[in-house]
Amino acid sequence: MDVKNMREYMGWLYYQYLLITGIYVLEPWEKSIFNTVLFTMVAMVVYTSYVFVPIHIWCNFETRLKKKDKYYLICHLPKCTYRLLELSLIF
């Protein structure tokens, strides 16, 4: 793809974004507020997923490996939860 086709494609994607969200009818200042709120929410979801999802997967995997008796789950699950808190403070 050359630069002109890429620019046209990006313009087409932006036009689709305007049509799907319905913000093409808004004033420019309303569009900027809407886009700012949307970008902030998406950034928060991406950051939270990046920080907490691997920790929860790791904790779940560790718990399932040692899931031979129910006593382990009752007594050691808070330890895993404390690790989640410690690891979340690192990031």
From TrEMBL:
Compartments in which it is found: Endoplasmic reticulum membrane
UniProt key word Transmembrane: yes
GO biological process, one term: ceramide biosynthetic process
InterPro entries named in the record: Ser_palmitoyltrfase_ssu-like
Membrane topology, record value: Multi-pass membrane protein
Known pathway: Sphingolipid metabolism; Lipid metabolism; sphingolipid metabolism
Pfam families for the chain: SPT_ssu-like
Alphabetical UniProt keywords: Endoplasmic reticulum, Lipid metabolism, Membrane, Sphingolipid metabolism, Transmembrane, Transmembrane helix
One GO CC annotation: serine palmitoyltransferase complex
Functional summary from the UniProt entry: Component of the serine palmitoyltransferase multisubunit enzyme (SPT) that catalyzes the initial and rate-limiting step in sphingolipid biosynthesis by condensing L-serine and activated acyl-CoA (most commonly palmitoyl-CoA) to form long-chain bases. The SPT complex is composed of SPTLC1, SPTLC2 or SPTLC3 and SPTSSA or SPTSSB. Within this complex, the heterodimer consisting of SPTLC1 and SPTLC2/SPTLC3 forms the catalytic core. Within the SPT complex, SPTSSB stimulates the catalytic activity and plays a role in substrate specificity.
Self-association state and partner proteins as the record states: Component of the serine palmitoyltransferase (SPT) complex, which is composed of SPTLC1, SPTLC2 or SPTLC3 and SPTSSA or SPTSSB. The heterodimer consisting of SPTLC1 and SPTLC2/SPTLC3 forms the catalytic core of the enzyme, while SPTSSA or SPTSSB subunits determine substrate specificity. SPT also interacts with ORMDL proteins, especially ORMDL3, which negatively regulate SPT activity in the presence of ceramides.
Entry's family note: Belongs to the SPTSS family. SPTSSB subfamily.
Name of the protein this chain belongs to: Serine palmitoyltransferase small subunit B
Source organism (scientific name): Pygocentrus nattereri
Species lineage: Eukaryota, Metazoa, Chordata, Craniata, Vertebrata
